[in-house]
Amino acid sequence: MATPQRTYRFTFGPWNISTGADPFGPPARNEVAWAEKIRSYKKLGFDGVQFHDDDVVPADLDGPAIQKGVAEVRKILDGEGLFCEFIAPRLWEHPKTIDGAYTSNSAAERKYAIERSKRAVDIANAVGCRDIVLWLAREGTYIREAKDPIASAQRILDAVNALLEHDPHIRILGEMKPNEPMDQAYLPTPGHFLALCYRTADPSRSGVLIESAHSILAGLDPSDDMAYALWHRKLWSVHLNDQNGLKYDQDKAFGSVDLRRAFNTVWVLERGGYDGCVGLDVKAMRTTKAAEQTKHLANSRAMFLHLVEVARGLDADKVEAYRAERDYEGLEMYVLQKLMGK
Ligand code: XUL
Ligand code: MN
């Protein structure tokens, strides 16, 4: 089992430095200014940013205003030595996307969602990145009867195709999540989106971003989900974090709930030759004081790197010998001891 020695590039989005507001309480920290967030990336050991479309320029600007606004942001990123990994159209906050952007029952609202997503592609081009991430937040239902599920699958495919056709180089990455905010999401897992990839106008530019917490919420193991997407050569980004069982999406620091699950995630990325960015979609605990509000990012990155060391320190021949002997008790103890630094 060869373990290629490689260096990883780390990214996160400005939303990962947040005020701690939750559905039951107001902000617990002041909002950090965008420019200050951008200045914190390098200090925290990160290489690039992930942006929603309106993290770059306000939504719904015209073409020239987009180009002007993005040029300013690009200059700031260049000045910091940062790159932009992807743009994700924020299709879940605007009044016109209240009932599912691409799968809305309203033709006018579907049109808005596609036009806004095309503008996100233009933003990506102007900022110098080739990936669009679609977290299909409101593409689903609260009650089964609300939408036509068959038509909805086609509408999501039509939207992906519209973006692929809008630009010959852009890649579309689905980031699937089974629920929240919707009761049931359409295409709830990476496997669902991978199937859709092969029906798009250009399967070679259609792939996935897999988030650990989203896989766990679907009752799946993130490392197996990532391995499957790697096998398809379609794992183009990840959102690593952790999740304590089946409840709301927690975005806990990577490795903080289940160290062994985190280890298996890193081991798969190492073995699978994953060459995308290591995105950390993590949230500080609400109780965190302002002075510590980026610790969860630095800690998640450090945990990833610790686990890379553990993965590289495994004796591949030993692992194979345990497998050949079907001595999984022995293999388990070997892995646990490695995780405890023994
Ligand atoms: C939502 C989620 C989003 C996406 C970006 O659960 O993970 O933050 O990662 O749109
Ligand atoms: Mn995410």
Structure notes:
The protein is an alpha/beta fold. Helices cover 43% and strands 13% of the residues. The chain is built from 12 helices and 10 strands. It has helices at residues 34-43, 53-56, 63-80, 107-127, 149-166, 190-197, 212-217, 222-231, 259-271, 295-313, 316-324, 328-339; strands at 10-12, 48-52, 83-88, 131-135, 140-141, 171-175, 184-185, 206-211, 235-240, 277-280. The chain has an 8-stranded parallel beta barrel, surrounded by 6 helices. Strand 3, helix 4 (107-127) and strand 4 (131-135) form a beta-alpha-beta unit. The mean pLDDT is 97. The structure holds D-xylulose and manganese (II) ion.
Secondary structure layout plus pairing:
Elements: E1 10-12, H1 34-43, E2 48-52, H2 53-56, H3 63-80, E3 83-88, H4 107-127, E4 131-135, E5 140-141, H5 149-166, E6 171-175, E7 184-185, H6 190-197, E8 206-211, H7 212-217, H8 222-231, E9 235-240, H9 259-271, E10 277-280, H10 295-313, H11 316-324, H12 328-339
Parallel strand pairs: 1-2, 1-10, 2-3, 3-4, 4-6, 6-8, 8-9, 9-10
Antiparallel strand pairs: 5-7
Helix pairs in contact: 3-4, 4-5, 8-9, 9-10, 11-12
Bound molecules: D-xylulose and manganese (II) ion (MN).
Manganese (II) ion binds next to loops.
Q: What sort of overall outline do the alpha carbons produce when their principal axes are compared?
A: globular
Query: How many DSSP E strands?
Result: 10
Strand content: 5-15%
- CA-atom Rg in angstroms: 20 Å
Q: How many distinct helices?
A: 12
Low-pLDDT runs: none
